[in-house]
TrEMBL record, chain A:
This is Carbohydrate ABC transporter membrane protein 1, CUT1 family. The chain crosses the membrane at residues 12-37, 71-90, 97-124, 150-176, 197-219, 260-282. Residues 67-278 form the ABC transmembrane type-1 domain. It comes from Albimonas donghaensis. Keywords: Membrane, Transmembrane, Transmembrane helix, Transport. It comes from the Bacteria. It is a multi-pass membrane protein. Pfam families: BPD_transp_1. GO terms for biological process: transmembrane transport.
TrEMBL record, chain B:
This is Predicted small integral membrane protein. Keywords: Membrane, Transmembrane, Transmembrane helix. The keyword Transmembrane helix applies. InterPro entries: DUF2160_TM (IPR018678). It holds the Pfam family DUF2160. It comes from Albimonas donghaensis.
Amino acid sequence: MNDKTVNQKAWLLVLPVLALVAFSAVIPLMTVVNYSVQDTFGNNQFFPAGLEWFEELLASDRMWNALGRQVAFSAIILAIEVPLGVFIALNMPKRGAWASVCLVLMSLPLLIPWNVVGTIWQIFGRVDIGLLGATLAELGIDYNYTQDFYAAWATVIVMDVWHWTSLVALLGYAGLQSIPDAYYQAAKIDQASRWAVFRYIELPKMSGVLMIAILLRFMDSFMIYTEPFVVTGGGPGNDTTFLSIDLVKMALGQFDLGPAAAFSLMYFLVILLVSWVFYTVMTTMDAREGRK
Amino acid sequence: MAWMAWTTETAIFFGVIAALLATFTFLAIRFPETPRTGVLGIETTRGDRLFITLLGSAFINLAWLALSGAPQPWALAICLVYAAAVFRWV
């Protein structure tokens, strides 16, 4: 590990990125911090508000409810997408023409833009003209995502599973492809069961890419905006108002810049914490792998 | 800079963070160190511990604001204790 030469001049090569990030992220974020301790009625006039917005938001149900819905959403889609993705990856053909066909078919949902996915499901689920909605209505199932809590949640979850399970499956598939045949041959000689092969060969070899898949899916789902916004608009009531949707309502709908800034800072802190935990777990796992 | 809506408090806040980053960069160059493994079971350098301190302090401040009702500067005192603990044991 340590036989690489150290050359601190390489940091100079990072400078352009640093400048770009400062311009696109750090300075706007600093502005958000400034907004969060002030009140404004537009016109770029600000009045000091101290920590009032933070206090107000922490004491109100609005942010906690949105956070609760957000955590529930991320937990549910991870609990479905990760096992399902692994299952699909295990059952995909390893080589030949069908492998390519599978890969292309699996990638298709990933290529569709978020708002198009939202529109597809918005129409697909409609009771009057949508295939899914109409079929369910014919079967006598009471399904209306604009009015019913469970229908709305089922729709946004199934939509996300449809859109993103492929990502987990493709990453898992890549992990599986990197396992040399010798491992399977050794397992065969030992007469290992299918479960043992999965548990002691495939899962450990996939764990690295699966961590990345979980991180990506958690981040994306935790920041999800477009799809539920297009399909349910956060409704019925506030039932599918996730953090981003609530934040946009606050910042652009009500133009409450101060509270919205405080809200986004707390949102950012949670994301920063989770990213750090994931990053640390991943690097620690890599380091252990390297020592073996 | 007017569009950034600066206040004295936020300017001091960012000034302190910038000073901390500069100090730790200087320390890292002047006194290189090897990472150590602490109570969390992960390898950390001084920079990692600073990050853990700052992120934790943000949550301590929010929790104080939400739960205590006492003046906010007391939260900073807890943060200092927390910082000392992080630098000692993590």
